[in-house]
User: Fold these one by one.
Assistant:
Number 1:
Amino acid sequence: ARAPRLSVVTQRLELTRLTAQPLLLGDARRNVTVHFPPTLRSVLGGPGGRQSVDVVATLMPSTETVVTGVVALTFQDPSSHLEIPVNDLADPIVISFPAFEAKYHPLEENYACVYEEAGSW
């Protein structure tokens, strides 16, 4: 069996356009859609009034044992390339996965939605 292809996409976005339209990841059949809340703009702008950010999106497609793809998002300063920490947003970043028909229906307790926050799962 082949391992799924991990893809990393970096896109520079102006903060004024960050929430205007969703970020689409993946191919036409398996798009993952990311909606950024308006409150994210002030966090990413920071005290220096940053005008744009680099959004680094990592996507690992679903596999036989992973029902949906795995998505990681980071934000970087375009000048320094340092990661911009994002904590305690008033509104969430919404990540949507395409609907699909599962090949089998395991027990509900076998599913878990996990995310990393401040180094913890």
Note: The first helix runs from residue 39 to 45.
Number 2:
Amino acid sequence: NLSHQSPFLYAASIVVAEYGGSRYERYPPSLQQDLFEMVVAMATTTFSFVRSVQDVNNHPDVVEELFYLMDRMVNNCPEAFVASPLLQQMVQAAIMSMNVDHHGAHKGTMKFLDNLISYAMALSGNT
């Protein structure tokens, strides 16, 4: 079961890394919302065929790239992401993906969770 979603997730994560964040003040403020909407569309597509542990086993490259994309959202434009229902879906997907024996999928998942927790701690003043 090969999917062609992985390269698109990777490309989207590069776009988020390059154009998200406060260092790009020359871009319109709506860009972060546009990036978020792109990420929601990509996550929705991914969740349409990755719904179970078996699906994660069949598409570990997709899961890895999805979590790297979400990690870059947390690092570069977290406001819309952490306030959305997508956050809960991603945490649930992270729990599910930890049941799979694939180094890359685990690495992407753990990087996302680590940065998400760091972001939450920074917001609460517990850095």
Note: The chain is about 75% helix and 0% strand.
Number 3:
Amino acid sequence: LQAAARHSSTPLRLSTSLRRGSSRGTMADEGKGGEDKGLVVVFGATGQSGRGVIKAALANGYRVRAVARDPAKIKAQDGLEAVKGDASDLDSIANAIDGADYVVSVLWLKG
């Protein structure tokens, strides 16, 4: 996921605190050797940063659930599930993250 961190001088990594059952470390430490690396849910999937996270996660063997208000904007790919969701709706968030191993939000919050 380092490729998605273009606007930061630090590589993008998910901290252990964001991980369910947080004893397993960061995504970069996961699943060496071809086993299932887990499901990454991405909020903000249609934006430039979201697309970068999706590309990097898929390239590194993760399954991805991309959440968007308009999932038709998400290009179909192996390992990618596009779902309709709204980050301002708690039920929508709960449905989107069901079964997730990692959750990444690259949403731009308007203040």
Note: The mean pLDDT is 78.
